[in-house]
Amino acid sequence: MATREHLLRTASGIDHFLRHESDGSIHMESHQDAQPFLEQNKAEYTHNDGYTADRSMRRAASIPQIVRYKWLVEEGWDCADMKNWDRLRKKLNSSEYLYLRTAPGTL
Question: Is the pTM of this model over 0.85?
Fold first, then answer.
């Protein structure tokens, strides 16, 4: 039977655990309650078009740290690195990741 050992909680609210399996293997797990972030994204998405008053900048998306971590671990890239902008833009323009968007439109 697997057991979990809590290691730490980060400032962004990610809990990290070690999971000890009965076969002797150890796995790292990370969890974050992303629901508050997603509810805020939805509220911002319907609030306005995302532009500043002078229309010089536009709000586009808010990505919970656990999603950033998932992409880093599973796909091997960091969405905060501007060299990955094309990859991030493709994800944010897809319907699969609409819940990350904070304003309508295309990037």
Answer: no
